[in-house]
Amino acid sequence: MISCYVIGELHTVESLCVYISDYSLTQLKGYSIQRPENFDAVYSIRPDIVFIDVALLGLNNSWLERIKQFSSIVFISENTEMAFEAFENSVFDYLISPVTFNRFVKSINKFDHLTQLAHAVHGTKKQQVVDSFFIKADSKGIKELLIKCDQLIYIEAMQNYVVLHMENNKRFSCHNSMKEMEDSLPNTNFSRIHKSYIINDEKITAIEGNMVMLNGYEENKLLVGNTYRKAFFEKKAQKMIKKKSGVQIFSYSRLASAIITFGAILINAQALGEFNLQF
């Protein structure tokens, strides 16, 4: 099922909610008839598609970047004036209001087709490149910080929060679980090596037994836990340069060449009377 969330004016929300409920491929996860003051509901649900009425877009639309980390966006407008901005924001589709059921189905079918294609190619239903993400940096959830993955060294679990260890000795904390952090990060670049550690594979500078050194510092030397050891070292083995076997490959062409050469020597030797060979 393709999960959907709708943000728009009343008439837009009403029609789309009916379409989503009636179509076999879609499931309604929530809606808002006005622009939310915060988007915690959308962030927590993480729907596959978020339908957004462009009439509710404001001057500051930085929240779109965060939604795009886990959802595809479909703009809805009464005209094509926002088409260029839709292109700039990499939205999945652009629907003209009033949206017909056939046009809605066409958009959903296209999403379903591309999702299945991605699943066939990458082995995952939905895979997006995540190079940054937001965290709530205070207990009230008011202040949000943008964390860039290439500057994140590792994540450490504490009692009821996690600490993000960054480049230049910076540290940030947020009230998320390790499971939430692990699910949000791309597993191609990050590895869970311990119940208390998630590391950035690109920051590994050395591995000594079951210890991993990050960024070349002894204080960033972390233990690989028993539970995660097998998966981590199998992943590491994929990047190991394989040693070529020292066994020589038998060459039939070389053998044939040697036989021909030896035969020529025998014939020449017989002609010179050095050997008396009977064939």
Number of helices: 8
- The chain-level structural class is alpha/beta
Percent in helix: 25-40%
Into which percentage range does the β-strand content fall? 25-35%
Q: Report the principal-axis shape.
A: elongated
Assign the CATH architecture of the largest domain: 3-Layer(aba) Sandwich
Report the CATH superfamily of the largest domain.
Response regulator
Looking at CATH, which topology of the largest domain would you report?
Rossmann fold
Count of structural domains: 2
Characterize the biggest β-sheet.
Answer: 5 strands, parallel
- The low-pLDDT segments are 247-253
What's the pLDDT, averaged over the residues?
A: 80
Strand order of the largest sheet: 2-1-3-4-5
Identify the CATH class of the largest domain.
Alpha Beta
The helix-strand sequence is EHEHEHEHEHEEEEEHEEEEEHH
Find the count of extended strands (DSSP E, 2+ residues): 15
Radius of gyration, whole Å: 31 Å
First-last Cα distance: 82 Å
Organism: Pedobacter kyungheensis
Pfam families: LytTR (PF04397)
InterPro entries: CheY-like_superfamily, LytR-like, LytTR_DNA-bd_dom
GO molecular function: DNA binding; phosphorelay response regulator activity
What does this molecule look like?
The chain has 279 residues and is an alpha/beta fold. It folds into two domains: 2-122, 3-Layer(aba) Sandwich (Rossmann fold); 132-237, LytTr DNA-binding domain (OB fold (Dihydrolipoamide Acetyltransferase, E2P), Beta Barrel). It has helices at 10-22, 40-45, 63-67, 83-88, 101-122, 178-184, 226-237, 252-271, and strands spanning 2-7, 26-32, 49-53, 72-77, 93-96, 132-136, 144-148, 152-157, 162-166, 171-174, 190-194, 197-200, 204-208, 211-214, 221-223. A five-stranded parallel β-sheet has the order 2-1-3-4-5. Helix 3 (63-67) links the parallel strand 3 (49-53) and strand 4. The longest helix is centred in the middle third of the chain and has 22 residues, at 101-122. The N and C termini lie far apart (82 Å). The model is unreliable at 247-253 (pLDDT under 50). Residues 146-238 form the HTH LytTR-type domain. The chain crosses the membrane at residues 249-269. This is HTH LytTR-type domain-containing protein. InterPro entries: CheY-like_superfamily, LytR-like, LytTR_DNA-bd_dom. Keywords: Membrane, Transmembrane, Transmembrane helix.
